[in-house]
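Support request, please re-run this one:
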Amino acid sequence: MMRTALVVGALLLGAGAVMAQQDVAVTQQNLMKSQGRSMYGVLGKMIKGETPYDQAAIDKALNDLQADVAKIPTVFTPNPKEDVVNANFGSSQKIWQNKADFDGKVPAVIKAIEDTKGKIKDAATLKAGFDSIQEKCTACHDTYRVKLK
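Re-run finished. Output below.
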């Protein structure tokens, strides 16, 4: 009876740890998806002409993006060691092997966003600002994001 209780307890503890790992990974993925909605769902669609130019939407997307990017170092503090189930992309373990470099890329993205704010006045300046921010985002994605599917 005592062994059965210990085995059940160990299984529940293990299952709880896996669920906690998934929660961390989901939180990290949700932050990145939120950034993607600002970049591609708002700015990118305007650049492609899929949605009309809307200065208020651009300003909101840039503010949201800046707030989300600033959260990266704290949201990516715990290492889930597991990817989100059915995700297309995941976090490379390189993040936690070189956390200082990973965190060090955030200020460049924030600066690119700040430099872009207030300068966007039309489709051409939107494209230039988008490309500037995208370049900084890609610098991190190339090293610290992995394609899962």
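The mean pLDDT is 87. The radius of gyration is 19 Å.
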